[in-house]
Amino acid sequence: MSMDRDIAKVLYTEQQLKQRVAELGAEISRDYADKDNIIVVGILRGSYIFMADLTRCITLPCQVDFMALSSYGKGTSSSGQIQIKKDLSETIDGAHVIIVEDILDSGNTLAYLSKILEFRNAASIKICTLLDKPSRRVKAVSADYCGFVVPDEFVVGYGLDYAEKYRNLPYIGVLKPEIYS
Ligand code: IMP
Ligand code: MG
Predict the structure, then answer these.
(1) Which of 8, 11, 26, 73 minimizes the number of CB atoms within 10 Å of its CB?
(2) Chain segment 121-134, per-residue pLDDT in tens
């Protein structure tokens, strides 16, 4: 049973992702060239592939850490009720924090996270999201770095899941609506 048959169309190929992630890494490397104490924080689990590729395109020394926040469960829209399932392993006091997220959708997750991290005395906090779906925004959050702006369709692959599946697709595609409806 191949995963490909559940995909209506490919939005970004492996090659396009690689190219764009390299550009983001170069941009971040330029912007943070004079900073030390950089911590790149991946939001589990959706960002795991993006995080691995992006950090290898950042040419500056940086730490990596991870957080896990409550997700959708099996639905395709956010509940607005966010919980920390796994917190950071290190303190971010005085650090330049770059939050790495798979997709910025309603904004509930990142609005909550930004508010929480603000109280931890980071020197700066920026958001890097691979995908942005601005049409669905509920909270006023915007990304400092964004890979691609996507239409209002449910996408999977390159870390993004539907009901915990399809994360391991090497490209990003639109899931056939009959899979989730
Ligand atoms: P937000 O809190 O609504 O901004 O949702 C962010 C989270 O919802 C992301 O980290 C994803 O895990 C998930 N999400 C939102 N849209 C999609 C999608 O199109 N495909 C897969 N996951 C999504
Ligand atoms: Mg998810």
Answers:
(1) 73
(2) 999 999 999 999 99
State mean pLDDT over 163-181: 95
Catalytic residue at 105?
yes
Q: Which amino acid is at 50?
A: F
Q: Report how far residue 42's alpha carbon sits from residue 25's, in angstroms, rounded to the nearest whole number.
A: 14
pTM: 0.95
Among 105, 132, 144, 161, the one annotated catalytic? 105
pLDDT of 95 above 70: yes
Does domain 15-152 bear CATH number 3.40.50.970?
no
Cβ-count burial 89-104 (b if 16+ within 10 Å, e if not): eeebeebbbbbbbbbb
Residues flanking ligand 1, CB < 6 Å = 46, 71, 78, 101-109, 154-156, 160
